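Could you help me review a protein record that somebody else here produced? What it holds is a sequence and that sequence's fold in token form. I have pasted the whole thing underneath without changing anything:
=====
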Amino acid sequence: MQARSFTAARYFEKGKDSVVVTVNANVIAAGKDKSTVYASATQHVEKVRVKTDRALLGLVPAGSEATKVKQEERTIEDKDFYNKLFVSLEKELSIVRTGR
């Protein structure tokens, strides 16, 4: 029996900052028409940092540079999140099984 792995990501913007949610799933066949799914999700928060170079007596900006900095990374442990994930997965699987 062969395992299949899937990764999906969703990107959310919050002003200049961003949040990326990544879901990793491993699907293992468990008999005819049955599978076991193991899933985990992480959330990455990235902040935009702007560095401005000053010139002319430190008063006039000469240019700026924006970089994204990973601020936080955590495993999502919210039970409701995973319940919704598996409900959505079951819905998609039923569509695939019935062909509609």
User: Anything to note?
Assistant: The chain has a mean pLDDT of 83. Helices lie at 56-59, 79-98. The chain has one domain: 3-98.
